[in-house]
Design a protein that fits this description.
GO biological process, one term (chain B): positive regulation of mitotic metaphase/anaphase transition
Pfam family, one (chain A): ANAPC8
Largest interface: A-B, 91 and 90 residues
Helix content of chain A: over 70%
Keywords (chain B): Cell cycle, Cell division, Mitosis, Repeat, TPR repeat, Ubl conjugation pathway
Largest sheet of chain A: none
Protein name (chain B): Cdc23 domain-containing protein
Pfam family, one (chain B): TPR_8
Order of helices and strands of chain A: HHHHHHHHHHHHHHHHHHHHHHHHHHHHHH
Oligomer: homodimer
Shape of chain A: elongated
Strand content of chain A: under 5%
C-alpha cells in the first residue's frame, strides 16, 4: 500500500473517532488533510470502494434489528419500512463538510458538497445552506430592527432551496431528511398545506427525526387539521399526538397518551417533563412541583423546562427552592434564555423588579421569540406601574403567540391601571375565550364590569358565576356574588351565596373578615325573614369574636328576644281565665 | 423480539444517522428516549451485547487498513501502533452524553457518564467537565473584569480533573485522548514540563489528534525544548515540526517542511495557508497574495487566516481587493474575529479610523486573546493621535504574546509621539531583538537617537547601518546615513553613502528631492576635493532639473572654470619661451 493510501485510511478512522469525542476542530483538521491527499490519477473507482464491497454483509447484520415487532402493550402496529442503514464509511468530501458544519462554517460545508449527489450529501449541503441563510437572517434582523420593533429580514436561501428540493421530490430522488428540510422551507415561505403534506411524507418514511414531527406540530393549529393527517402507525406517532394534544390544550388526552408511552419509556425524563407541562396547564401545581423535584434529582444540570418549574415555585411562593434553582442554573448555563427567566422569577419574588426586568431582557436578547420572557417582563412592568412598557411587552407576546392568554390578561390589567375599562374588557374577553376554565380571568372581567365607569353589575354577576364554576380557589367569586346581590337589593340570592361562601370557608378551615361579614349578613337576613332560630345560630357564632361584631350580635339577639316576649303577652290577652 | 428491544435498536441506528447529519437536537431527543426505555429486570448483560459479539470480525476488517507502510518519498518511518477501532456501537449513556455535548450542555453530559468506565466515556466525561469549567471561567471573566483590565478567573474543574487523570495515568488506564486532556489541564495549571511529557505520550500513541500537537507546540518556546522531545516518527510529526518552526521564526525550515508535505498533501488548503504565513513572515507579500488568491478560489467561504491576507492587501494598498474581501467575509460570518479584523483593515485603509476601531473592538469582544486585533487597534489609535489608548492596546498585545515585535514597535511609536524618547528607545530595542531582520525597526530606533533630547548620532548611524544591511526597501537608511555623516563633519563617509543611495535610486529608477540632494552634495564634495571631472559630471546632471539646483550647478561650474583658467596662466609664468 502506498503511503498516501495509508494516510488516507488512518485519517478516515481518525475523523470518526475524533468526531465521536466532539473534538470538532481536530476532526475538521483531519478531514481537510484527508481531502488534501493527492488523488492517484490512475484510480477511477471511488476511494472507499474496499469498504463498500463488504458493507452489504454489515448492512444485513443491522437489518436484523430493524424489524418492528408487536409492542408489549398489545396494540397492533403496521410495520414501518425502515430506511436502510447509511453507508458505513462516509465519502471524503462528506467528512470534510460535516467537520466544517460542526464548527458552524455552513457556507464552507455547502460548497465542499457542491458536486456530491448522494442523498446524505445532498441533505447536508441543503441543510448547511439553510442554516447559513438563517444565520444571515438573524444578523440582518439585528442590523435592521429597533429596540422593540420588528424587521422583515428573510432567509435568502429559501428560494433556491425550494426550487432544488421540489425538483428532487418530483423526480422521486429525495429522502426523508430532504423532505424534512423541504417542509421547513415551505413552512417559512407560508405554504402551509404543502408543508404539512411533505412533512407527513417525511415522518412516514423516517419516523425517528423528532425535528420533523416538531415542525409538523407547529402546522397543526386545529383538531380538524390534526385528524386529517394520514400518519402511519408507529410509536413515534404517539409522542407526536401527545405533544399536539398538549399544544391544542387537550390536556387530559395528552396525559393519557404520555401515561401510555411510559409503559415503554418508563425512565424518560422527557416524558416526565411533558406530563409536568400538562399538569401545569391544568394548574395542578403540587404535582408539577413533585415531578420537577424528581427531574432535578435525576438530571441535576438540566435547564430545559425548568423555567416552568420556577413559575410554579413563584406562584407557590417557595422562596428557598426558587433561590436554590436560580443559583444552580446560573452556575450551569447563565446565558441560556430559560436560565435568565428563572433568575428573573427569583428576583421578582424578592420584590426586586428592576433586576428582574434586566434578566428577562437578557433572555430576550438571547432568544427574541421566547414567549414566556415577554409575558413575565410585562408582569414586572405592571408591578412597577410602568404601563406603557408593560403594554409593549404583552403586545410582543401576543404577536408571537396569539393564543397566549397570559399576555391578553396582562394587557387587560395594564389598561385597567390606566383607567380604560372598555379596552380592559376587550382583552379580558380574549383571555377567557382562550382559557375558559381559569377562574382568575373571569374574576378580573367581573371586577372590570364593577368599575364606576361601567357599573354593569348584572354582567359582573354572570362572570362571577362562571368563576365559581371553575374552581375559584381563592373563593373570591362566591363572596363577591353575595355582595353584588346585596347591593342590587336581591337579599335571597345574596343569602344563598353568603351561605355557600360560609360552607366553603368552614370546609377549608378559613376565618377572617369575610366570615364575619357572611355571618352578620345571614343573621340579619334570617331575622328579617323572622326565621329566628337560624338567626340566633349565626348570632351565637358571632359572640365568639372580639370585634364590634360581638356587640352587634348581642344587639340583634336582644331585639329578637323582645319580639318573642311580645308574643306570649298577646297569647295571654287572647285567652282569659275560665 | 419485544417492542422495547425494537425501539431500542431503531433508536440506536437513528442517533447515528441524525448525528451524522448534524441534527443535534433530534439526536439528543432520540438518545433521551433510548435511555428512557425501561431496562428488562431479568437482563444482566450489557444492552448492546448482541453487537459486541459480532464486533471482532468488523474490527478485523478495519485493521487491514491501519497498517502504516513506507511513504513514497522514501523516508523510513517506524510503524506506529494505531489505536484499535472503537466499539462499533456506542453504549446508550454515551450516545445521550454525546448528544448533550453537541448541544453544549456539558455538565449534563458529564453527569450522564458519571458511572461509565469505558475509555471513550471517561474521556468524554472529562472533556465535558473541562469545557464546562472553561465556559464558567469565561463568564466569570466577564463579570469581574474592567474595560481593558484582566481578571484572575480560573477553570474550577482543573483540580479534580488533574487528580483523576493523574491517577489514571499512574495506573496505566489512560488512553491518548485522556492524555491530551491531562496535558491541557497541566498546562493551564502551569506544570509545563509534565504537560510536555504527557502530550508527547499522547501524540506518540495517537498521532491524529491535531489538538494535542497544537498544545504541545504552545509549550515549545525554544529550539532546545523542541529538540529534547522524544517524538515517534510519523507524518503527523512533520506537520508539527513545520508549525513549530514557523512559531520559532525558523521560516525557511518551516517552508522546506511544508514543501515536503505537499508531496503527499498536494491539495491541502491548510498547507498552502501555512506556506503563505511563512512567506508573510519573510515579507514576501507578492507570493502571499498569490497564494491567498488561490485559496479564496478553492475555498471561497474560508475565513481562517484571511485576516493575514487583509494585512497584505493593506500593506500593498490594494483597495479594491480588500474591499471585496471585507464584503465577502461580512456576508459569510460577520461575527467571527477574523472577519472583524478584515473589515477593520478595510476601514483603516479608507482612513476611517474610528470605524476601524469599532471593528477591532468587536473582534476582541468575540475573542479577547486575538493578538493581531490588539496590535492593529493600537495602530489605529496611533493614527488618531490617541496615545494613551494606543499604549493600552499594545500592552494587551505583549501580555498575550511577549514575542510580538509589532506591539513593542507600536509602543515605541506611541511614546515617541508623547516626546519620551528614552521609553521609545526601550521598546524599539525590544522589537529589533525579536525581529532583527526588519529594517523598519532599526530605522525607527535610529530616528529616536536623532531626536533633540537624545542627540546620539553615532548610535543612530549604527542603527542605520543595520537597516541598510537588512534590505531597507524604502532606502531611508542610506540617505540618512549620508546626512548624518555630513552633519558630523565627515564628508568622506557622507559622500560614500550619498553615492550608494544614488546608485540605488538609479537602479530602482526613482527620482525626487533625495536625488537632487545627493547630486548637489557629491558635486560640492568633488569640487572641494579638486576632482573637477567628477564634480562636473554631477553638475551636468543637475542642469536637467528646473529648480534652484540648476542655478546652483551653473554657479559651481563657473567657479570651477575660473579655477582652471588660472592654472594655464601659472604655467605660462613658469615656462618662459
Amino acid at each position: 500500500m502506498s503511503s498516501k493510501e495509508s494516510c488516507r485510511s488512518e485519517l478516515r478512522i481518525a475523523i470518526r473517532q475524533l468526531s465521536d469525542r466532539c473534538l470538532y476542530c481536530a476532526s475538521k483538521w483531519a478531514a481537510e488533510q484527508l481531502v488534501g491527499i493527492e488523488q492517484d490519477p490512475a484510480k477511477f473507482t471511488p476511494s472507499n470502494t474496499r469498504f463498500q464491497r463488504g458493507s452489504s454483509s454489515i448492512r444485513r447484520k443491522y437489518k436484523t434489528h430493524e424489524i418492528a415487532g408487536t409492542p408489549s402493550a398489545g396494540v397492533s402496529y403496521v410495520a414501518t419500512p425502515v430506511m436502510e442503514e447509511d453507508e458505513l464509511v462516509d465519502g471524503d468530501f462528506y467528512l470534510l463538510a460535516k467537520s466544517y458544519f460542526d464548527c458552524r462554517e455552513y457556507k464552507r460545508a455547502a460548497r465542499v458538497l457542491r458536486d456530491q449527489n448522494g442523498r446524505k450529501s445532498v441533505f447536508l449541503r441543503c441543510y448547511a445552506l439553510y442554516l447559513a441563510g438563517e444565520k444571515r437572517k438573524e444578523e440582518e434582523m439585528i442590523e435592521l430592527e429597533g429596540p422593540l420593533g420588528k424587521s422583515d429580514a428573510v432567509n435568502h436561501e429559501l428560494v433556491s432551496l425550494e426550487r432544488e428540493l421540489s425538483t428532487l421530490r418530483k423526480n422521486g430522488k429525495v429522502d426523508a431528511f430532504g423532505l424534512y428540510l423541504y417542509g421547513l422551507v415551505l413552512k417559512q415561505k407560508g405554504s402551509e398545506n404543502l408543508a404539512r403534506t411533505v412533512l407527513v411524507e417525511s415522518v412516514n418514511s423516517y419516523p425517528w427525526n423528532w425535528n420533523a414531527w416538531t415542525e409538523l406540530q407547529s402546522l397543526c393549529k386545529t383538531v380538524d387539521i390534526l385528524n386529517s393527517l394520514n400518519l402511519n402507525s408507529h410509536w413515534m406517532k404517539d409522542f407526536f399526538l401527545a405533544s399536539v394534544y398538549q399544544e391544542l390544550r387537550m390536556h387530559n388526552d395528552s396525559l393519557s397518551k404520555y401515561e401510555y408511552l411510559l409503559g415503554t419509556f418508563s425512565n424518560s425524563n422527557y416524558i416526565q417533563a411533558q406530563i409536568a407541562k400538562a399538569q401545569y396547564s391544568l394548574r395542578e401545581f403540587d404535582q408539577v412541583e413533585a415531578i420537577f423535584e424528581e427531574l432535578l434529582s435525576n438530571d441535576p444540570y438540566r435547564v430545559e423546562d425548568m423555567d416552568m418549574y420556577s413559575n410554579v415555585l413563584y406562584a407557590k411562593e417557595c422562596f428557598s427552592a426558587l433561590s436554590y434553582l436560580a443559583h444552580r442554573v446560573f452556575m450551569t448555563d447563565k446565558y441560556r434564555p430559560e436560565s435568565c427567566c428563572i433568575v428573573g422569577n427569583y428576583y421578582s419574588l424578592k420584590g426586586q423588579h428592576e433586576k428582574s426586568v434586566v434578566y428577562f431582557r437578557r433572555a430576550l436578547k438571547l432568544n427574541k421569540n421566547f414567549l414566556l420572557a415577554w409575558t413575565l417582563m410585562g408582569h414586572e412592568f405592571v408591578e412597577m406601574k410602568n404601563t406603557p412598557a408593560a403594554v409593549d411587552a404583552y403586545r410582543r407576546a401576543v404577536d408571537i403567540d396569539p393564543r397566549d392568554y397570559h399576555a391578553w390578561y396582562g394587557l387587560g390589567q395594564a389598561y385597567e391601571m390606566m383607567g380604560m375599562p372598555f379596552y380592559v374588557l376587550n382583552y379580558f374577553k380574549k383571555s377567557v375565550f382562550l382559557q375558559p376554565n381559569d377562574s382568575r380571568l373571569w374574576i378580573a372581567m367581573a371586577q372590570c364590569y364593577e368599575t364606576d365607569q361601567l357599573r354593569m353589575l348584572d354582567e359582573a354577576i354572570k362572570c362571577y358565576r362562571r368563576a365559581a364554576n371553575c374552581n375559584d380557589r381563592e373563593a373570591i367569586a362566591l363572596h363577591n356574588l353575595a355582595k353584588l346581590h346585596s347591593e342590587l337589593g336581591c337579599p335571597e340570592e345574596a343569602a344563598f351565596y353568603y351561605k355557600k361562601d360560609l360552607e366553603r370557608m368552614e370546609s377549608e378551615e378559613r376565618e377572617g373578615p369575610k366570615m364575619v361579614e357572611a355571618l352578620l349578613y345571614l343573621a340579619k337576613y334570617y331575622r328579617a325573614q323572622k326565621s329566628f332560630e337560624e338567626a340566633e345560630i349565626y348570632c351565637t357564632r358571632l359572640l365568639d369574636y372580639t370585634g364590634p361584631e360581638r356587640e352587634t350580635a348581642k344587639s340583634i339577639l336582644r331585639g329578637m328576644q323582645s319580639t318573642q316576649s311580645n308574643f306570649p303577652s298577646m297569647d295571654v290577652e287572647h285567652f282569659p281565665p275560665s
